[in-house]
Design brief:
about 70 residues, 2 helices, elongated, SERF-like_N, SERF1/2-like, Small EDRK-rich factor-like N-terminal domain-containing protein
Length: about 70
């Protein structure tokens, strides 16, 4: 073999690169559409909570004089 361990080193390098690419991806078995629906529901809940807090803050604050 004239290549020595180059093939093994290239294979290890490719595995490391693939692992780095897949590092942050979620693979919990949920389809893309289901995940999008779940994320949208979470964002709607956050938005409703923020609007409620904003309304409560505006009602509690005394009017400012100009």
């Amino acid at each position: 073999m004239t290549r020595g361990n180059q093939r093994d080193m290239d294979r290890a390098k490719a595995q490391k690169k693939l692992a780095q690419q897949n590092k942050g991806k979620k693979t919990d078995g949920i389809s893309h559409n289901k995940r999008a629906e779940n994320d949208a529901e979470i964002m709607r809940a956050k938005q409703a909570a923020k609007e409620a807090a904003k309304a409560a803050g505006a009602a509690a604050a005394p009017p400012q004089k100009k």
